[in-house]
């Protein structure tokens, strides 16, 4: 049996940026929502894991866009479990518009942690996942290791109440927002985001503060690292743009 599900989303005014295009943060949130809905329906959602003092965390995230959806568009996000390893499982996503044309893809690598130790546990402790594997690839490069940089400070961050989720840490969106905010409105008027990927290295907790460093490594390609005031690198990221 094929275990792929699709979830529908409407892009309303609160979902778009100053150019009436969906923001990367909102689209990532919809992707996470689709993953959560699918996991819930199959019995291995976040709240199912919390009942046994476990939880899902994202290890790596990648998203590519061929078309940037805008206000009023309807999206369908199709998702499936691609593979299950010893520690990580990969979930793929295909994003389509009203005309059922693909506008982009995403892939996320997940781990399960013990909520007391905050350490990853073997995925095979949840063998039910193996029942939902769909061995179907998507035409983007899988989330990979993002290299380190020296870089210059482009943004600062502080983790506050509104950043904390039910795992008592920040989720994907805080990291993504931090790097998106490294650029000016004028930059976004001239560039379109084509790919973003993030390596999540450490949890960000309430009260953490620090800086985001960035470095241009090629035409329209930038690398980032998020570093706490104590010098802990919590994420490394890459953004690739296309000039309009």
Report on the structure:
By secondary structure, this protein is of the alpha+beta class. It has two domains: 1-143, Roll (Thiol Ester Dehydrase, Chain A), CATH 3.10.129.10; 145-244, Hotdog Thioesterase (Thiol Ester Dehydrase, Chain A). 16% of the residues lie in helices and 41% in strands. It is built from four helices and eleven strands. It has helices spanning 24-41, 46-50, 172-180, 185-190, and strands at residues 5-10, 54-65, 74-84, 88-96, 102-114, 120-121, 152-158, 191-200, 209-218, 221-228, 233-243. Strands 1, 2, 3, 4, 5, 6, 7, 8, 9, 10 and 11 form an eleven-stranded antiparallel beta sheet that branches. A hairpin with a 5-residue loop joins strand 5 and strand 6. It starts with a strand and ends with a strand. The mean pLDDT is 96.
* CATH superfamily caption of the largest domain: Hotdog Thioesterase
How confident is the prediction overall: mean pLDDT? 96
Termini separation comes to: 43 Å
Helix content: 10-25%
Question: Regions with pLDDT < 50 over 5+ consecutive residues?
Answer: none
Q: How many discrete structural domains?
A: 2
Order of helices and strands: EHHEEEEEEHHEEEE
- Structure annotation, total helices: 4
The radius of gyration computed from the alpha-carbon positions, rounded to a whole number of angstroms, is 18 Å
Q: What amount of the residues lies in strands?
A: 35-45%
Inertia-based shape:
globular
Structural class: alpha+beta
Q: Please summarize the sheet with the most strands.
A: 11 strands, antiparallel
The strand count comes to 11
**CATH topological fold name of the largest domain:** Thiol Ester Dehydrase, Chain A
CATH architecture term of the largest domain:
Roll
């Amino acid at each position: 049996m094929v275990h792929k599900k699709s979830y529908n989303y409407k892009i309303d005014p609160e979902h778009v940026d100053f150019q009436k295009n969906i923001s990367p943060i909102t689209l990532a949130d919809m992707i996470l929502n689709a993953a959560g809905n699918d996991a819930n329906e199959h019995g291995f959602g976040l709240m199912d894991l919390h009942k046994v003092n476990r939880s899902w965390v994202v290890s790596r995230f990648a998203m590519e866009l061929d078309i940037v959806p805008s206000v009023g568009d309807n999206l369908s996000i199709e998702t499936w479990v691609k593979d299950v390893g010893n520690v990580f499982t990969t979930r793929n996503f295909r994003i389509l518009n009203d005309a059922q044309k693909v506008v982009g893809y995403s892939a996320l690598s997940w781990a399960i942690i013990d909520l007391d130790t905050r350490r990853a546990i073997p995925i095979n402790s949840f063998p039910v996942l193996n029942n939902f594997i769909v061995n179907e690839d998507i035409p983007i490069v899988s989330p990979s290791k993002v290299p380190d940089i020296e870089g210059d400070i482009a943004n600062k961050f502080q983790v506050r109440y509104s950043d904390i989720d039910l795992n008592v840490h920040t989720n994907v969106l805080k990291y993504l927002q931090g790097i998106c905010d490294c650029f000016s409105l004028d930059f976004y008027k001239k560039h379109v985001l084509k790919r973003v990927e993030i390596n999540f290295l450490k949890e960000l907790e309430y009260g953490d503060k620090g800086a985001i460093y960035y470095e241009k490594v090629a035409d329209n390609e930038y690398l980032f690292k998020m570093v706490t005031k104590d010098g802990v690198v919590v994420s490394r990221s890459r953004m690739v743009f296309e000039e309009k």
